[in-house]
Write a structure and sequence with these properties.
This protein has about 300 residues and is an alpha/beta fold. It is built from twelve helices and eight strands. α4 runs parallel beside α5 and α7 (about 160-185) packs across α8. The radius of gyration is 19 Å and the shape is globular.
């Protein structure tokens, strides 16, 4: 999940080089300390950026190409060669248009947000509404040919302990699980971090998320394992991946600090992505990161992160 910008959005809506892939103009610009422009790459060179050898990336089009209209961002994802996209709240989107365009461009929708921060899943008074929202989101997922959707636990509830809130999340997911199972759409529960982005949120770290999934006991309830949040909350990314791989439904990434693309912070993503791959993860990895300078530079960095 994104940081404060995404919180406001959802609340209001209820090691090898890439030189072989980047031909002379871009490589020369890099050697000269210049940022290569998108038009310095031919169409095929540009598409190679998203065609990575190990990891299948789903670009988050809420955070990439933000100055463009939403549907144009989908077109840009295809131009860059990414096989899939992800986005946040579906209710603000023209779903039929998204479905048509992704099908025309040969893109998959890896996941979208079915239930956000508020009202909290961690409060039982919201569970009837939650089950209804999951039914609606599953119908949307069917239109999009999408198999996964994020659900958020919720911010701290006055007068409740963390244990009580987690039990309420379990109860709500148990109620909605038969709906998800009927449609074949996985609910991926996302732990946040409370040190940087989501102060006051009730669910953070891998251990409680694993416990919740275990107690719900449905194959259609797993974790949206955002490596950015996990790094801030608990570190030891590879170790925790090994411990939690059974419960991972989806991976997302961003570097820290800054929530930008790989290579801009402290996380050595070639090592982390290799660990996920060697553990057998073959699902999409969501690029829920803000390009630090340009989308081209970010795509090049993502490509490098998949070299090992």
């Amino acid at each position: 999940m994104a940081s404060t910008t995404r919180r406001a959005f959802l609340a209001t809506a209820a090691a090898a080089s890439t030189a072989a892939a980047l031909h002379a103009p871009a490589a020369l610009a890099q050697q000269q300390g210049k940022k290569p422009k998108q038009d310095q790459l031919g169409p095929e060179e540009l598409r190679r950026l998203g065609r990575t050898p190990h990891t299948r990336f789903a670009v988050n089009i809420e955070m990439w190409w933000r100055k463009l209209p939403f549907l144009q961002r989908i077109g840009q994802a295809a131009r860059f060669g990414f096989p899939a996209i992800e986005f946040w709240n579906w209710r603000t989107k023209d779903i039929d248009a998204v479905a048509r365009l992704t099908q025309e461009l040969g893109l998959e929708v890896a996941q979208f947000t079915a239930w956000g921060f508020r009202p909290g899943l961690n409060n039982p008074k919201n569970h009837d509404r939650f089950v209804k929202a999951i039914e609606e989101a599953c119908q949307v997922a069917r239109r999009l040919r999408c198999k996964k959707m994020t659900v958020v636990g919720g911010d701290d509830q006055p007068g409740m302990t963390q244990e009580q809130m987690h039990q309420h999340i379990i109860a709500g997911l148990r109620r909605a699980a038969p709906v998800a199972e009927r449609y074949g759409v996985m609910m991926i529960l996302e732990p946040m971090n409370i040190r940087v982005d989501h102060k006051g949120h009730c669910l953070y770290g891998s251990a409680p998320a694993i416990r919740i999934c275990r107690e719900v006991g449905s194959p259609m309830v797993r974790i949206n394992w955002d490596l950015y949040h996990m790094q801030i909350t608990e570190g030891d990314l590879c170790g925790h991946l090994r411990e939690g791989i059974r419960w991972i439904g989806y991976l997302q990434l961003a570097d820290h600090p800054g929530r930008n693309e790989p290579g801009t912070g402290e996380i050595h993503y070639p090592r982390v992505l290799r660990e996920a791959y060697e553990l057998g993860y073959r699902g999409y990895v969501g690029l829920e990161c803000r390009p630090k300078t340009t989308e081209l530079a970010a795509a090049q960095a993502v490509h490098r992160a998949d070299q090992w």
